[in-house]
Amino acid sequence: MLTGKVAVVTGASRGIGREIARTLAAAGAEVIVNYNGSAQRAEDAVKEIEEKGGKAEAIQCDVSDFESAGKLMDRVIKSYGHIDILVNNAGITKDGLLMRMSEEDFDAVVRTNLKGAFNCMRHVARQMVKQKSGRIINISSVSGVLGNAGQVNYAASKAGIIGMTKSAARELASRGITVNAIAPGFINTEMTEVLSDGVKEGARAQIPMKEFGETKDVAEAAAFLASDKARYITGQVLCVDGGMAM
Fold this sequence. Notes:
The protein is α/β, with parallel strands linked by helices. The chain is 49% helix and 15% strand. It has a seven-stranded parallel sheet, sandwiched between helices.
């Protein structure tokens, strides 16, 4: 389905990003597993992909840094000749109530989650325009759609991704490039494992399907949006959330 395609997945050393990298590789894409600090996890992800017959390479980059993001894209283009798929998944959380949230925590989350996605899109757009083809998939969140107490910074960054997705989609559509967002709900990852049983119960009560999703649910949605099957879909937000945001 994606044979011959080159995909860059940011924040791909664990969780949703790692599952997206695995799924794109299984579909035939050569995958760049981007990471910032988790080198061993990224190498493990590459090894896992290669053991199943896929092709992958781990590349370190702090995508929140504009110049570093540019160097990442330049390196990939120089090595592979093209970039067909960009999945902006890199993200962090620094939760806290509005009245107690520090400026540093707000800035750090917006810088990584929102500016990081902008940086990568900005640097890959020229190549995709030149190719007259490309798929950009931005990982937002149900928090960016509904808001969430204790996540003013995170929700702002993820809502910003939605606005940025729609704007970029309008700019790039005539050049054969689609730009879409996926908004996951509660997904079973390391981030949700640390939640207390009470918090998990409260979360499930808000989900019409009454269960948390799996990373594969998000990854399969990303693989679809990256494929030719989604060639006429752009500027959309696909909520993979068990019905939370309906």
